[in-house]
Amino acid sequence: MLITENKVVSMSYTLTDGQGQILDQANDQLPFMYLQGYQNIIPALEAALAGKAVGDTLNITIPPEQAY
Known about the structure:
- The protein is of the alpha+beta class and about 70 residues long.
- It contains one helix and four strands; from the N terminus they run E-E-E-E-H.
- It is globular, with a radius of gyration of 12 Å.
């Protein structure tokens, strides 16, 4: 299934800073979930995830000016 508008997305992630220090994580046992297409997450991240499929592995870099 592809990530498209109105889909609930469940994902694991590791958020790091520029030095590689872990700032936040979500794993398979306690995944992060959001509804695609409703600006519930950083817009650049939502755009990067659009069209991806279940099981895809991504490495996404979001510049500070596009983050919260």
